[in-house]
Design goal:
The complex is a heterodimer of chains A (616) and B (364). Chain A is 68% helix and 4% strand. In chain B, the strands form 2 sheets. Chain B has a two-stranded antiparallel sheet. Classes of the chains: A mainly alpha (616), B mainly alpha (364).
């Protein structure tokens, strides 16, 4: 399974080659169809140049002379010799053994063959290309695809120089040495002609050449390309030889899958059953397509049944992974909610202050991230790490200023606090808008935050979300420790439980209030750093979180950090599990309605505060 | 007897009522009778603007009724305002008939655009004015009844109530933004033509709507005044100041709160219905939580707990907003934010409180 996971990293390049691969598969079908064609029915050169890339649709009248067709098959059988002779990078032992016999003649052979490409008819060229493809030389795929695209040039020198014109621009390179060649030399070369049947044959030859490439990544992507097309008996035989010599386990896995997929069309039911048994373990989409075709069309009922059963088992595994994916999305959404709400759990939950400017404190944290990034433009990773304490300090200071300036006069009047902090949120928003701009600020992500961890073809987890999940939990644990284990936490809890008594025992309550509020605000700032990696950073970003944050705190139970944790994760899961059925907006509406109804049943949230304090 | 009860020692209220009555007469006169070159002529733009303020004042009155007299802070009154507005908007949309862009006599433009083949059931009957007007009151009333019944029964109050009303209005906004809801998505309903056969663009119709708004506001004020001076109103004040004690004295607190909440929602619905034809559009932006909180600020600025204060607050804040957003658009949010902070810190009884204190000072 892990091998498939790694292979699927190549999905990106594979997609790019999508067009090429369909063409290649058709070319194989064509080659097969052409084998029994009557000799000399029409000279290949006089073939009308059709624009279509898929001539296999009609029974192709290309009449390649018999010997050359058999070369395709024959060459595959002889492959070991040629391939290993040139596979310099591939240091497996079996290769070294065969290398001893054929290495000497094989090595120059490739270059000679390349130089032969401009000579002769299209059919000669095809024969040479086939030999080249079988050589396993790393240069061959590029040369053959350049030939297919009409970018392969030959100079008029005595042994001609073979040049590859770059796909874009005027430059190019020498096909044999690989050196870059100036544009003037390139323009002096003449194009080596190809026609459509040859072009199609070339595409599949490129695939073959890549399967025997020394780089396992290239082999794997070539196999994934082959998977899409139909595979004829010659290629199948060649795949068999590869199976014997493949050293890389994940390419081997893929190779077996491709071979089994091709054998789904084998003649005997036994072979087909064996193929189905191999395919059971694969999660690739093409395997499912192949099995579905077998279920629908196979002549043998046993095979149909086995295929259907294999499909079921694949399907149930996919569903398991889909569920895991939803679970992860839910946890990820929950971690965002947790980050947004955790500061509020302090200011609202512990102190009872309705801080409507909470979202703007998150925004300040995000802007701090942006500001530090613009200060040190080169170092993305360190700027993000530096932004975390900076955002904590900046947002914390703003929070302390808010508390000392406004909120301390409003304790015991929650509704007034709500209005005043709402006013502050408007001022902060407009301040950011006037200071920077009303437009969103671009915040870049370091490399280790982009991309995703691909567990298998159906399950990919985004790195940024994984990190934010871990980060949210770290922040939560840190806050829990501060509240339970430090003297500040002790004082905060004392003031929250009984303010006059705490003061009588010598706690400076005003000072504790300011620090508590600063702590909550600072954590909101840290949340802003994390959220800047997920969403747009703009003056309005805080508003997106304020209602959600309040919902989380109220749902979890005011004054209870664990409640906030459970509330955030629960609401995140609920949203993500509803989304596939209802769409994002409706899911959000349903969750809001759920909370409204939930508050009716349990007005104090999931984990209400116990004791007299709850009555206040 | 009744007039004595309603207006005794309500000097502020009487002043505001007299001003409103004067406005009801003077504004149409200044717009229709005076020639445009007269210095006292009032352009139709101003008529529509003041008419809009009147509907805001009605919304503020509705909020003050529950916040000032029952201590229920609703941060979601925009929901009722918007629903009333949508009911009116649906009537106006149906009146467009086949004059829409697509010329479909049955379906509004956006439904043709979204390829509906028939009118959804919730649009039935909105071509009749009386039905639409009934819905203006009933839909917000019903929502308030269900929501309030759930909330007050389980004794959700104070901050929690404020937060879940905000969730309510936010959920409504998200819902109305969806095209699938059948209310025109984020474009809302607009491009109205007629109301009761009169063109909504015509000057006379605008003046008519202005007069209607003023008269409704005066009636609503008197009705609210009637409620708060009744026995019922005294219980409300009692439960505002000491809810548990009132409950222990044998009053069903939740019933008192619930009916007042429903009445207030209906007033907000009417305000929305009067607002829509004067501004010519209703869209989900009316459900934005900011709008609802802003309406609470009007009450806070004017003076919570005195009904006429809400009217003064609505006019003051909106007047300031109109002036700021044209003169210093950058500064408006600063001013609004500062107003929130300063009023809560220094004017807990709003603008009305300044005069009260002064009068008390003179008396001493």
């Amino acid at each position: 399974m892990t091998s498939i996971a790694l292979v699927s990293r190549m999905l990106g390049p594979m997609l790019a080659a999508l067009l090429l691969l369909t063409a290649a598969s058709h070319a194989w079908a064509e080659a097969e169809a052409a084998t029994p064609a009557p000799e000399g029915a029409m000279p290949a050169e006089s073939m009308p140049e059709t624009t279509t890339d898929f001539p296999a649709v009609e029974p192709d009248p290309v009449p390649p002379p018999e010997p050359q067709e058999s070369v395709v098959a024959a060459e595959f059988d002889e492959l070991p010799a040629a391939a290993e002779g040139n596979a310099a990078g591939d240091g497996s032992e079996t290769l070294d053994e065969t290398l001893a016999d054929d290495a000497e003649p094989a090595a120059p052979n490739v270059e000679t063959l390349i130089r032969q490409l401009p000579e002769g008819s299209f059919n000669d060229r095809r024969a040479v290309a086939t030999q080249l493809a079988a050589s396993g030389d790393p240069r061959v795929p590029d040369i053959l695809s350049a030939l297919a695209e009409g970018r392969l040039l030959a100079t008029a020198d005595a042994p001609p120089r073979i040049l590859i014109r770059a796909a874009t621009g005027t430059g190019g390179s020498d096909a044999i040495s690989g050196e870059n060649v100036p544009a003037s030399v390139i323009s002096g070369g003449t194009r080596i002609p190809v026609h459509n049947p040859l072009r199609n044959a070339l595409r599949s030859l490129v695939a073959v050449a890549t399967i025997s490439a020394p780089d396992p990544e290239q082999r794997a992507s070539a196999l994934l390309r082959l998977m899409r097309g139909s595979i004829d008996s010659d290629l199948l035989a060649y795949l068999d030889t590869r199976v014997e010599r493949e050293a890389d386990p994940r390419v081997m896995d893929l190779l077996l899958t491709v071979r089994a997929l091709a054998r789904l069309n084998a003649d005997t039911p036994e072979e087909r059953l064996a193929a189905v048994a191999v395919l059971r373990g694969s999660l690739l989409n093409d395997v499912r397509v192949g099995l579905e075709a077998t279920v629908a069309r196979d002549a043998d009922p046993d095979v149909r049944e086995a295929a259907a059963e294999a499909l079921d088992s694949i399907q149930s595994r996919i569903e398991l992974y889909r569920f895991t994916e939803n679970l992860f999305f839910g946890l990820s959404a929950g971690s965002v909610l947790l980050l947004a709400a955790i500061g509020l759990a302090i200011t609202f939950g512990v102190m009872g202050v309705i801080n409507m400017a909470h979202g703007e404190l998150i925004m300040i944290g995000a802007y701090t991230t942006w500001f530090i990034q613009t200060l040190i433009p080169g170092a993305l990773s360190s700027s993000i790490l530096l932004a975390i304490p900076a955002a904590f300090v900046v947002a914390g200071l703003v929070g302390i200023a808010m508390e000392r300036g406004v909120i301390q006069f409003l304790y015991g009047r929650p509704l007034e606090t709500l209005l005043a902090t709402f006013g502050i949120s408007l001022i902060l928003q407009q301040a950011v808008r006037s200071l920077f701009s009303p437009l969103n600020r671009p915040v870049a992500s370091p490399d280790w935050l982009s991309g995703s961890l691909e567990v298998n073809p159906v399950l990919a987890l985004t790195w940024s979300r994984i990190y934010i999940l871990v980060f949210a939990i770290l922040v939560f644990v840190a806050l829990l420790l501060v509240m339970k284990k430090t003297s500040l936490g002790l004082k905060v809890r004392a003031v929250a439980q009984n303010r006059p008594m705490a003061r009588a025992l010598g706690v400076r309550t005003g000072w504790v209030d300011a620090l508590t509020f600063g702590l909550g605000a600072g954590i909101a700032g840290i949340a802003g750093v994390a959220l800047s990696q997920l969403t747009n950073v703009g003056p309005n970003m805080g508003q997106a979180y304020i209602i959600d944050s309040f919902m989380v705190v109220v749902f979890g139970g005011v004054g209870n950090l664990w409640g906030t944790f459970v509330g955030a994760m629960g609401l995140g899961m609920m949203t993500k599990f509803l989304e596939p059925h209802s769409g994002a907006v409706l899911a959000k509406i349903l969750v809001l309605i759920f909370i409204i109804l939930f508050i009716q049943r349990r007005p104090r949230g999931l984990f209400p505060k116990k004791g007299r304090a709850a009555e206040a | 007897m009744l007039t004595r009860r309603l207006f005794l020692s309500d000097w502020g209220g009487i002043t505001v009522l007299v001003l409103l009555l004067a406005m009801t007469v003077a504004v149409p006169y200044a717009n229709l009778a005076l020639p445009p070159e007269s210095p006292w002529h009032l352009s139709t733009y101003w008529v529509a603007l003041i008419g809009k303020f009147l509907t805001f004042a009605l919304l503020a009155l509705a909020i003050d009724l529950i916040w000032g007299y029952a201590g229920i802070l609703s941060l979601g009154h925009g929901a009722f305002f918007g629903l009333g507005g949508y009911a009116m908007g649906m009537y106006l949309t149906r009146q467009i008939g086949d004059r829409g862009v697509y010329g479909n006599p049955e379906l509004p433009d956006f439904m043709v655009f979204l390829s509906y083949d028939s009118l959804p059931w919730f649009w039935w009957g909105f071509d009749m004015f009386w039905f639409a007007m009934a819905m203006v009151v009933l839909v917000p009333g019903l929502l308030a009844l269900v929501f309030g019944w759930l909330a007050f029964r389980s004794r959700v109050g104070g901050v929690y109530f404020a937060i879940i009303t905000q969730a309510l209005v936010f959920a409504l906004m998200l819902a109305f933004f969806r095209n699938e809801m059948g209310f025109g998505g984020n474009n809302g309903l607009t491009d109205f033509k007629d109301i009761l056969g009169f063109s909504v663009q015509a000057r006379e119709t605008r003046v008519g709507l202005f007069v209607a708004s003023a008269v409704v506001l005066i009636l609503a004020y008197v009705a609210s005044r009637y409620i708060v001076t009744s026995r019922y109103g005294r219980v409300l004040i009692a439960l505002r100041d000491a809810e548990s004690r009132t409950r222990f004295a044998g009053y069903r607190v939740e019933h008192y709160k619930l009916w007042l909440f429903v009445f207030s929602a209906m007033l907000a619905g009417i305000a929305g219905a009067l607002y829509v034809p004067q501004v010519g559009i209703i869209n989900p932006g009316e459900f934005a939580p900011l709008r609802s909180i802003e309406a609470v600020l009007w009450v806070a600025v004017g003076g919570r707990g005195s009904l006429f204060g809400a009217i003064i607050g609505a006019f003051t804040v909106n007047g300031a907003k109109t002036w700021f957003t044209t003169a210093y658009p950058e500064a408006w949010l600063f001013a609004l934010g500062a107003l929130f902070v300063l009023v809560t810190l220094f004017l807990p009884r709003g603008l009305v409180g300044i005069f009260r204190r002064k009068r008390k000072g003179e008396g001493a």
